[in-house]
Amino acid sequence: MTSLLPLAFMEGVDPWIFGFSFITVVVTVWMGFRSAKTSKTASDFFVAGRSVSVGWNASAISGEYLSAASFMGVAGMVMSSGYDALWYPVCYACGYLFLLLFIAGPLRRFGAYTIPDFAEGRFDSPLFRKIAVCFVLFIGFFYTMPQMKGAGTTLAYIFPGMPYWGGVVLVGAVITLNVALGGMKGITLVQAFQYWIKMFAICVPIFVVMSVYGFYNAHLGVNDGRPVAAGEPAALVQTVERKPLSEKAPADTPWISPFGPLTTKAAKAAGLSEEQAKPYSLLYTYSLIIALVCGTAGLPHILVRFYTNPDGVAAKKTTMWVMILIGVFYVFPPVFGVIGRNLMPELYAATGAKGTDKVVLELPRVVGGVWGSILSGITCAGAFAAFMSTFSGLLVSMTGALAHDVYGRILRPNSTPQERMFMFKVSAVIIGAVAIGLGSQVEQLQINFMVGQAFAIAAASYFPLLFMSVWWRGMTMTGAATGMLGGGLAALACTTIINLSDLKLVNLADFWKANPLLRILCEQPAIWTVPLAITLMIVVSKLTAAKVPGDIRMKMLVLHAPEKLGLKQEYIQEHQAGMGH
Questions:
Q1: Closest CA to 485 of 132, 1, 74, 120
Q2: CB 42 within 8 Å of CB 419
Q3: Is residue 309 within 8 Å of residue 57, measured between CB atoms?
Q4: What is d(CA 299, CA 477) in angstroms, rounded to the nearest whole number?
């Protein structure tokens, strides 16, 4: 194995950690190659032949959804910001309730390949497809950046001599190859398999750590590195080399508050007291909840997976099982954060790829010896599965937008299925290269923070479009496009400004200090961009009511009528897509 990497990177590498990670990558690539042999038609590449069962699809969606943000970012943010960060896993899971109730079934009944397909078909507007494609790419690239941060962080941990950008390039190249070869059908089996890898990798090491160093409650009662909880296990006191928490570690009181350092940082940066900062904290929290819940219901790479189900009933069952699978998973990352806060306080002082985002990878090593290395190797394998599966899904979603929507529908509507499949492979390489370039620039940003921004853009663009289009027959193309552009571009502009500021590319520190409210409304814009999008859709649709599609009643029947009535119509017909005909 050592011949595969420069010797400089192999110095100081733990063989167990390297071994588990290497096996995960090899198995993933092998499964991708094997599945690629079954991807023969355009339908296979874009929607896996619409033949994925409920169990497989629920596992695949969960594998795709549980990204580096879920596997590494939640634990790192709980460790750095405390209970404040629990809004992330709770709302990540809650978003699927919105999907189950309002979107999953109708979306599948419409029978498209991509969300831009739905946008064009619902409003009979090729122009709207172009707008929708742009947001697939905006959301996708914002979401790939934290996956690349996870890749760079994990590789830098496994190979101490490897620079952060080296991990981003290596992992990005492997996943791009996998997607280019097999498309949606090629990655479905891989993503389902990777969910169960992640589940195993997140729960087994933490159970072992707790059996040695005490359970969750014992670590909650630790202050300044000294055990204060009554009845704390002797092993915790005797075995762990006590280190005082660094200055960067949060104090106990705000750490256990649901409105702590995460949601009050903008106000506190302006010199406000904790009492003065509380209204800002509530505003930030409500905005975060809206972004994560509505954003989950507006993520193109998740929504497109419902088109792989045979029908709307299967799509709704799939959504219910996804809620169960990811809900069980999210029990564990916060436990890593709490125990890591006590046992590995040195991570607070580090930044970038060496900071708290690494706690899931590092914590199992406190067990010591070979067992510590084995457990850390297992979590590293889970981290690989996390960012590989999510990046695969994002890549398929964005590649499908380019190959199917831009090339196959806009530039060359008469292209053959073979030409579209070839363009799928070319587009995968282009998108992969851009994602790698962006990911190499975000080492200093927190994984979960970046994901929250991607969700805010999805919440202000795709969620209003889908929710209103499915449930309100009076919506016009002009209204839908105005709302999507107004809310989505506002969220995109805000998140871009915040990232440029946090990366010190633009100096706005004094401005943010003087205007904490503007900082919060920019950092988490969903609280005003989502209502803005919906309001624009309603007002402009009312003003252009004459432009409501003439066949809207039939379309609403297709969206909502049970399949048994026989009204379902596949928007992408077999002869159009080249499904073997």
A1: 132
A2: no
A3: yes
A4: 21
| Tally of residues, the chain | 581
Share of the chain above pLDDT 70, in %: 79
Distances (CA, A) of 188 to 36, 158, 393, 461, 514: 11, 27, 9, 26, 49
Element (H, E) at 532: helix 526-543
Q: Is the pLDDT of residue 223 over 50?
A: no
Going by C-alpha positions, the residue among 567, 534, 555 that lies closest to residue 467 is: 534
pLDDT at 380 over 80: yes
Domain boundaries, the chain: 36-564
The position carrying tokens 């499908």 is: 400
Place of tokens 């998740």: 302
Provide the b/e sequence for 232-271 (b: ≥16 CB within 10 Å).
Answer: bbeebeeebeeeebeeebbebebbebebbbbbbbbbbebe
How is 414-455 classified by DSSP, letter by letter? T--HHHHHHHHHHHHHHHHHHHHHHHTT-TTS-HHHHHHHHH
pLDDT digit string (tens) for 57-99? 888 888 888 887 788 888 888 888 778 888 888 888 888 888 8
- Tell me which architecture the domain covering 36-564 has in CATH: Up-down Bundle (1.20)
Helix locations, 159-251, DSSP H = 164-213, 216-220, 234-239
pLDDT in tens, 11-57: 667 888 888 888 888 887 777 677 666 655 555 555 444 556 777 88
Using only the alpha carbons of the chain, give its radius of gyration: 24
Q: Which residue bears the tokens 């900071």? A: 355
Tell me if 407 sits within 8 A of 120, measured CB to CB.
no
Region of poorest pLDDT, from 122-136, 389-403, 562-576:
562-576
Residue 400: other Cβ atoms inside 10 A: 31
Q: Which residue has 């997976």 as its token pair?
A: 305
Q: Rounded distance, CA 433 to CA 173, Å?
A: 8
Going by C-beta distance under 8 Å and a sequence separation of 6 or more, which residues neighbour residue 556? 473
Print the SS3 string covering 353-368. Answer: HHCHHHHHHHHHHHHC
Dihedral angle computed from the Cα positions of residues 40, 62, 400 and 418, in that order, rounded to the nearest 10 degrees: 0
Tell which residue, 409, 477, 463, has the closest CA to residue 128.
477
Place of tokens 């929290």: 285
Residue 216's CB is within 10 A of a number of other CB atoms, namely 12
pLDDT in tens, 418-452: 787 788 888 888 999 999 998 888 888 778 788 88
Question: Cα–Cα distance between 28 and 199 in angstroms, integer?
Answer: 16
The answer on pLDDT for 408 being more than 90 is: no
Task: Give the tokens for residue 103.
Answer: 């979107």
Q: Is 222 helix (H, G, I), strand (E, B) or coil?
A: strand
